[in-house]
Amino acid sequence: MGERQRVTRADVAGLVGDVCGRGVADLERLSGGSKKGVYRVRLDDGDTVVLYVWADDENYWPAMPPGEPATPLGDASGLDQFEAATAELRAVGARTPEVLFSQRAHGELGADVALVADLPGGTLERLIDRDPGAAAKALAELGEMLTAMAKRRNPRLGKVIDPTDARDAVDVVRDRALRHLAAAANRVPALAAARERIEQHLLSLAAGLAPRTDYGLIHGELGPDHVLIDRAGRPVLVDIEGLLFFDVEWEHAFTRMRFGDAYPPLRVSGLDGDRLRFYTFAQSLSLVEGPLRLAGGDFPDREFMISIATHHTEQVLRAIM
Predict the structure, then answer these.
(1) Which ranges carry the Aminoglycoside phosphotransferase domain (predicted)?
(2) Mean pLDDT of the chain
(3) Sign, CA torsion 294/146/277/262
């Protein structure tokens, strides 16, 4: 696509003035966002708020190929998803950013927007590195939030805005992983050479996993970078648009991978080890295909995406050896 149009101070001055009653001193687009723009707005009295913008120019994900089947694990974005996820999380006592204002198709910005309270404590990822003692308290509280979410059940899977999918979670993940393998094999020679063995391993992990009758509430992509710390040192979930009802093991396969040694306080009871193994393998295939798809476009940190894909290529190949 052509040059992306970014939000400017002039674009947000009226919105911020109406909501906060103050002027805009500075506007900074925060790094890492791939589906929406996240801007820190510095007010003229030194306070800050955060602006979410769901606009085409803020979304780096390429369109899915024609005929690609819909999946509850697909990309999720937009104010509708954000508001539904906020309500669902608050219903179980999980913290999300305070919403100061939201509007669909905001005039000056030409997109759905939300203005939320800023969280000055940074990410849980940085806190784990900087202050393990403070991080331990936040991790324990995050574990309580995940337990409460896992107990929130629905007989159908899907995004919280419309959890009506009657398929079994294992079938959804297996079919999606096969598509990811096919796409990744077209880009990575080592995966192409081992494709048959990878497919056999995937299918063997999925075989014998019995269907379930209900599903728990999961974030969908819960890493330590998607947890912010508030002024009291407490964890707050962000990037919540992908919130869905699904096998809780899908969440914990990813979360265990991302948190590493800091994961144990987050583990919930009743996880199925066979499902965890299957979902971990499928996650690695996803973490080859997705980052390579992003890296093929104009995402700003292309080398980081390639490093993720390279790491998970190694994980896939190690698993079948």
Answers:
(1) 27-248
(2) 93
(3) positive
Q: Of 6, 105, 128, nearest to 57 (Cα)?
A: 6
Q: Which residues pair with 132 in a beta bridge?
A: none
Q: CA 71 to CA 173: how far, in whole Å?
A: 9
DSSP 36: S
DSSP state of 74: S
**Which of 288-295's residues contact partners 24+ apart within 8 Å by CB, and which partners?**
288/180, 288/184, 288/188, 288/191, 288/312, 288/313, 288/316, 289/180, 289/181, 289/183, 289/184, 290/180, 292/183, 292/184, 292/187, 292/188, 293/61, 293/62, 293/183, 294/34, 294/60, 294/61, 294/62
For the stretch 208-235, pLDDT in tens is: 899 999 999 999 999 999 999 999 999 9
What is the Cβ-side half-sphere exposure of residue 100, based on CA atoms within 13 angstroms?
16
Write out the two tokens for 291: 């980052």
C-alpha pair distances (Å), 189 with each of 43, 176, 257, 317: 51, 20, 25, 12
Residue-level pLDDT at 301: 81
The DSSP output letter for 262 is G
What CA–CA distance (Å, rounded) separates 305 from 313?
12
Phi and psi at 78, nearest 5°, equal: 110, 160
Return the DSSP state at 267: P
Q: Rounded to two decimals, what is the model's pTM?
A: 0.93
Whole-number Å distance between alpha carbons of 296 and 275: 31
At residue 5 the predicted structure's pLDDT band, cuts being 50, 70 and 90, is confident
The domains of the chain, with CATH numbers, are 9-117 (3.30.200), 124-320 (3.90.1200.10)
